[in-house]
């Protein structure tokens, strides 16, 4: 488990009702999962077959969606790689 | 309405005539063939074009052929479609695939032909077939480019040359090409489906590629250790014996519950060369082989049950699976799995489905 993961879990665990702190935690983790979800959602447009094929394409491009969760650390290398993949797939990242 | 399969063991100049005789009055609009490199592919193309002047013809060379009920060698197998089974088709050749990216311009040609932007084509109405030079090493790049530009599924195989590993051919429009790929975009009348089957389970052990030469399809290190050493260790065998495990213990990228198999080819010193690329950081399951015939039967039976009627199957079947079947004397049993269904296929140097994969059968099924 990476440092950011631990930090994020710590904040959520000790401040379950403090929205501000949960959001601070979110800003340090989960970006990869959100990028993956954006790519899959935008590309598939609700088509479940394309959801699967997009997931497979991401895995073959080197980012396995199954390995990332809402608490995964915001690894800059993976984020940059995903931004590149999004551009290749014609997906706009906000 | 029909899909018809024929095969010939005649010498090259007689093959097209043999097909015509077997097909009788059937007049195909699309013809797909797979032929051993023991045939002269230029001559074969010329003769097929003469025999079926109105048809769109494409094909490739093989490392063994498959036709309903049989696995063959030194043969030509052929699947013929009429207008009532494939409403429309367009075929394009991409030359110089090792050095040039011609996918975008090819897709423009598809758009012009079908008068629809490729992004707007209904993925349930169109299906692509890719036949690609199996010695080009370009499969990953071409499949990646296709996957970027469209959600239409392209399925296919890498052309073979009967294990000579010298020169393979893809064909279209009466001409044979090397260093090229053929892309066919089809509009089947009754729909289609896919079957991807690989006979492997996970050992539960994993290897993470930490140093790779992606272009050379070579892994230098798994988990920070020299690749051959790490592969031998995870299987509990000596370095000297590790090579004997390549066929039965490839590695797989897991997508959901599916494996996308990458097969080890040969040691390169302490590094390990594969039949398709592995990217840095990829986590791979170490796999163990199961019974190909039994697994394929189960997969085909499930598909038959799901679809009810299958009008035709094109099987892109890895040469490594064929070698295993030959070794176990199971070729007849494998061929018989397709009895009662119009089917052709070939032993490939790699299979294409979403990406480039190994030790798999990727099948296009016509409903």
UniProtKB/TrEMBL annotation, chain B:
Give start and end of each FIST C-domain domain: 227-355
Q: A Pfam family name for this chain?
A: FIST
Annotated SMART domains: FIST, FIST_C
Q: Which residues form the FIST domain?
A: 27-226
* Alphabetical list of InterPro entries matching this protein: FIST_C, FIST_domain_N
The identity of this protein, by name, is FIST domain-containing protein
């Amino acid at each position: 488990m990476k440092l950011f993961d631990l930090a994020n879990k710590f904040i959520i665990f000790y401040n379950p009702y403090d929205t501000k702190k949960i959001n601070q935690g979110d800003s340090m983790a989960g970006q990869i999962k959100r990028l993956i979800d954006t790519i899959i959602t935008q590309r598939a447009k609700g088509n479940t077959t394309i959801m699967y094929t997009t997931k497979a394409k991401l895995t073959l491009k080197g980012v396995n969606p199954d390995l990332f969760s809402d608490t995964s650390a915001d690894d800059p290398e993976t984020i940059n790689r995903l931004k590149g993949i999004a551009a290749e797939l014609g997906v706009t990242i906000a | 309405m029909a899909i018809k399969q024929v095969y010939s063991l005649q010498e090259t100049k007689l093959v097209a005539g043999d097909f015509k005789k077997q097909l009788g009055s059937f007049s195909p609009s699309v013809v797909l063939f797979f032929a051993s490199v023991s045939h002269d592919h230029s001559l074969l193309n010329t003769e097929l074009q003469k025999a079926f002047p109105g048809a769109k013809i494409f094909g490739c060379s093989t490392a063994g052929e498959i036709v309903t009920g049989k696995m063959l060698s030194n043969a030509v197998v052929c699947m013929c479609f009429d207008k009532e089974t494939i409403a429309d088709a367009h075929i394009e050749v991409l030359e110089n695939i090792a050095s040039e990216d011609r996918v975008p311009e090819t897709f423009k040609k598809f758009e012009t032909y079908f008068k629809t932007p490729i992004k707007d084509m209904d993925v349930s109405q169109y299906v692509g077939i890719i036949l690609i030079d199996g010695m080009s090493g370009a499969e990953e790049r071409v499949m990646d480019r296709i996957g970027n530009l469209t959600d239409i599924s392209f399925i296919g195989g890498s052309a073979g040359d009967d294990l000579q590993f010298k020169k393979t051919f893809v064909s279209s429009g009466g001409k044979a090409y090397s260093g090229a790929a053929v892309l066919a975009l089809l509009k089947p009348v009754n729909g289609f489906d896919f079957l991807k089957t690989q006979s492997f389970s996970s050992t539960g052990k994993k290897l993470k590629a930490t140093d790779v030469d992606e272009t050379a399809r070579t892994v230098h290190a798994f988990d920070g250790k020299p690749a051959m050493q790490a592969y031998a260790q995870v299987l509990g065998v000596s370095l000297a014996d590790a090579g004997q495990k390549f066929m039965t213990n490839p590695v797989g990228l897991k997508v959901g519950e599916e494996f996308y198999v990458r097969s080890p080819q040969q040691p390169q010193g302490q590094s390990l060369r594969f039949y398709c690329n592995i990217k840095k950081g990829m986590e791979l399951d170490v796999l163990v082989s199961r019974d190909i015939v039994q697994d394929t039967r189960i997969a085909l039976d499930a598909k038959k049950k799901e679809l009810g009627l299958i009008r035709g199957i094109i099987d892109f079947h890895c040469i490594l699976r064929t070698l295993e079947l030959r070794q176990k004397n199971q070729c007849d049993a494998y061929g018989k799995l397709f009895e009662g269904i119009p089917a052709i296929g070939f032993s490939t140097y790699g299979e294409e489905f979403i990406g480039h994969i190994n030790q798999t059968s990727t099948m296009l099924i016509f409903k």
